């Protein structure tokens, strides 16, 4: 997949380990210029990890299909 320009917004990193394990992190954007640290959540196992994984996979598929 070739990406010409990333979408606007804060920087984010996503790690989908399996169907139930997710690591999601973001950096603050221009709305919070004093925040320079990364904020992250980790979830392993159902129900939260499963739901997050489904949302993330759906979002990635939506981006790739455009």
UniProtKB/TrEMBL annotation:
UniProt superkingdom: Archaea
Organism of origin: Halobium palmae
Protein name from the UniProt record: TrmB family transcriptional regulator
């Amino acid at each position: 997949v070739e990406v010409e320009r990333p979408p606007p917004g804060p920087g984010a990193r996503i790690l989908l380990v399996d169907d139930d394990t997710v690591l999601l992190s973001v950096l603050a954007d221009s709305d919070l210029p004093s925040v320079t640290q990364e904020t992250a959540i980790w979830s392993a196992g159902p129900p939260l990890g499963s739901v997050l994984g489904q949302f993330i996979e759906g979002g990635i598929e939506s981006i790739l299909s455009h």
